[in-house]
Write a structure and sequence with these properties.
single chain; about 325 residues; alpha/beta; seven-stranded parallel beta sheet; 10 helices; about 40% helix; globular
Length: about 325
């Protein structure tokens, strides 16, 4: 019997990898959109325009006949100006926490069977010297991370005793075609041919290819052991920033130009970038946040999803980067 899944954030980065997988597996897809899709959709879908996602979004039409929900939509943009931190936090909570809570309530009322929430490793930490597992304490240090953690908590609380099961996925930094974030910036730097002052960086990071995220989501929709579980998600291959740059250069078929600059000097440059951003009102290539991601460590043990769901990433790190 054909099953129906509602996908929020259906025009986003992860959805661009997920929707073909769902279509191939025979799912009927309801695509929840903020506004009408301007061109033919990437797969056959039923389009439902819901507008902005917050605590007041109307989900009744989108949830008609839906068996499962994959909630991808979220506010992810990080504001630069520290003076706007309070406003930023409120906006993250409005979309990520209250928007999720509203969708969960509506899904329960509509009789949805399973809810997959794509959270973030940011719900636990941005950087960590310790390898994270599902049992590690959650200490989010950004408005985005705090809003994601609270959304997880709301989902668990509302779904308890409702008859609707859930799965929470916490992917590490996601990369792949169409990535709008920091990985895209790093790829642009590598392809520019400019020397990158990162040869002396000694860190370790976990990544996850968008195609692996899509495959894991699809597994969570059908595997009975995914019910009421939280999983960390990565490719399972941890590398340093210099190793990542070498792989990116190899994939782009360009020379790898790495030079060694003391990390302390790079952090001072990042602080200078913060000041410049405030002065000119727009982003610059190097700021404190980017320095943290280039120099810091964050690794996860994602073996639990492999054990519980008998899942293996279909793509290696090298395959995802090339």
């Amino acid at each position: 019997m054909l099953k129906t899944v509602l996908v929020t954030g259906a025009t986003g980065f992860i959805a661009s990898h997920l929707l073909p997988v769902l279509h191939e597996q025979g799912w009927r897809v309801i695509a929840a959109l903020r506004r009408p899709f301007p061109s033919p959709p990437p797969i056959p879908w039923v389009e439902v325009v819901v507008g902005e996602i917050d605590g007041e979004t109307s989900w009744q039409k989108a949830l008609e006949g839906v068996d499962a929900v994959v909630h991808l939509a979220a506010r992810a943009h990080i504001l630069r100006d520290e003076d706007e931190a309070a406003e930023s936090e409120a906006e993250f909570m409005r979309v990520n926490r209250e928007g999720t809570a509203n969708l969960v309530r509506c899904a329960i009322a509509a009789g949805v069977g399973h809810f997959v929430f794509v959270s973030s490793i940011g719900a636990m930490a941005t950087l960590s010297s310790q390898r994270l597992t599902e049992a590690s304490p959650c200490r989010p240090d950004t408005p985005y991370g705090r809003s994601k953690l609270q959304a997880e908590q709301v989902l668990r609380r509302l779904a308890q005793g409702s008859g609707m099961t859930w799965t929470i996925l916490r992917p590490t930094l996601v990369y792949g075609a169409g990535n709008p974030g920091n990985m895209e910036q790093l790829i642009a730097w590598v392809r520019s041919g400019l020397p990158l002052p990162l040869a002396g960086v000694d860190n370790c990071r976990s990544f996850v290819y968008a195609g692996n995220v899509a495959d894991a989501i699809a597994r969570c929709l059908t595997h009975p052991q995914a019910a009421n579980q939280t999983f960390l998600l990565s490719d399972g291959q941890d590398i340093s920033t210099p190793q990542l740059i070498r792989l990116l250069a190899k994939g782009a078929n360009v020379p790898c130009r790495l030079v060694s600059v003391p990390p302390k000097a790079l952090r001072w440059l990042g602080k200078g970038g913060d000041l410049l951003e405030r002065a000119i009102g727009r982003s610059v290539p190097l700021n404190t946040a980017r320095c943290d991601r280039l120099l810091g460590s964050l690794t996860v043990d994602s073996s639990r999803i492999r054990t519980v769901l008998h899942w293996q990433p279909p793509f290696s790190l090298e395959e995802g980067l090339t």
